[in-house]
Specification:
Elements lengths: L3 H9 L5 H13 L1 H14 L9 H13 L12 H13 L13 E6 L5 E4 L5 E4 L3 E6 L7 E12 L8 E5 L2 E5 L3 E6 L5 E8 L1 E6 L7 E4 L3 E5 L2 E5 L8 H4 L1 E8 H12 L3 E3 L8 E7 L3 H12 L2 E4 L4 E4 L5
Parallel strand pairs: 5-6, 15-18
Antiparallel strand pairs: 1-4, 2-3, 3-5, 4-5, 5-8, 6-7, 7-10, 8-9, 9-12, 10-11, 12-13, 14-16, 17-18
Helix pairs in contact: 1-5, 2-3, 3-5, 4-5
């Protein structure tokens, strides 16, 4: 959800759908003081006859907020109560993920190429961004929680703070931690979200079902796909290779190695003879350019390789 001001406004005016209601209720449970304040002020507005007299001005303010939001292009005029609710939320500015300048200033970090970029957040947590990734984060965190929004893939090392959980919104999921390191992958084109824990403990759940959490520890992976959560006890050993630059293979088939190298370097690698895929190899490639990695594989398995403009071709005799 990209515009929480309008979401809360819809909720108080009775215009929210079931999923939106669940999201608001989850926020209220996590922020009881702010929720009570909203409820009290909203209740007081319902007893004031003159409140509706400012509807025209109120709607102008709401439209201005809508027009500044990329994901909302058209919105028809709702009932007076909906506008009043919007004004209430906009006026109070109590939502910690709101873009209100009075509460927080948000920044966006983007990576467009294969380059690995890293940054340190206000609490000392470190984030490494994979290619084509976007992270939205505040310059300073709120008093009770640390919240960021991710689209793409990133590796997190979260500074420990038991009193202030770190929360990541990605796709339709929430990842909540206190202090740990993990990889989070949420690429829209893949239509799934994956959390792979390197250390510590992580809670992973659907935004619409906060009561059904999956707890992940070191070596575990959580996956959200087609509306379902799944816990996997072990993930691929080279999952963190994009950050560390280290690829490890132990008695791995060449067909598997080729797939891993293709993903890691972004260059298609093809076997001239499919039978070569049965060859096995144990090796470790540490921060090597593609041609050096190919050289090691070719020398070990007595193969030849050719690098073209669009792909790499491995050829030679099949292994006995």
């Amino acid at each position: 959800m990209q515009n929480w001001d309008l979401l809360l406004a819809k909720y108080f005016a009775g215009e929210a759908n079931h999923q939106e209601e669940r999201q608001v209720l989850h926020w209220m449970q996590a922020n009881p003081q702010e929720a009570d304040k909203l409820k009290a002020v909203w209740k007081s507005t319902q007893s004031k006859q003159g409140f509706a007299s400012d509807v025209h001005f109120a709607w102008q303010q709401v439209q201005r907020r809508i027009n500044s939001t990329n994901n909302v292009t058209k919105l028809k005029r709702k009932a007076v109560s909906w506008v009043a609710a919007a004004v209430l939320v906009l006026g109070l500015g109590v939502v910690w993920w709101s873009l209100s300048q009075k509460k927080q200033t948000w920044q966006i970090a983007k990576t467009l190429t294969k380059k690995l970029d890293s940054l340190t957040l206000a609490d000392g947590s470190k984030v490494w961004l994979h290619h084509t990734t976007q992270l939205r984060y505040p310059t300073t965190f709120g008093k009770s929680q640390r919240v960021v929004h991710l689209q793409g893939e990133a590796y997190f090392e979260i500074a420990k703070n038991p009193a202030k959980p770190f929360i990541i919104y990605s796709g339709n999921t929430i990842t909540q931690v206190l202090g740990t390191s993990f990889n989070l992958k949420a690429r829209p084109e893949e239509q799934k979200v994956e959390v792979s824990v390197n250390s510590g403990k992580v809670a992973f759940f659907d935004v619409a079902k906060p009561d059904k959490k999956v707890l992940l520890t070191q070596g575990n992976q959580g996956r959200f796909e087609a509306g379902k959560l799944k816990k996997i006890k072990a993930y691929h050993p080279n999952l963190f290779a994009w950050k560390t630059g280290v690829l490890s293979f132990e008695q791995a088939k060449l067909s598997t190695i080729v797939q891993t190298l293709t993903t890691h370097y972004g260059t298609p690698i093809r076997l001239a003879n499919p039978q070569l895929g049965r060859c096995t190899l144990t090796t470790q490639l540490e921060r090597l350019p593609l041609h050096e990695a190919l050289e090691i594989i070719a020398l070990t398995l007595h193969l030849q390789y050719q690098i073209n403009d669009k792909e790499v071709l491995l050829s030679g005799k099949p292994c006995p």
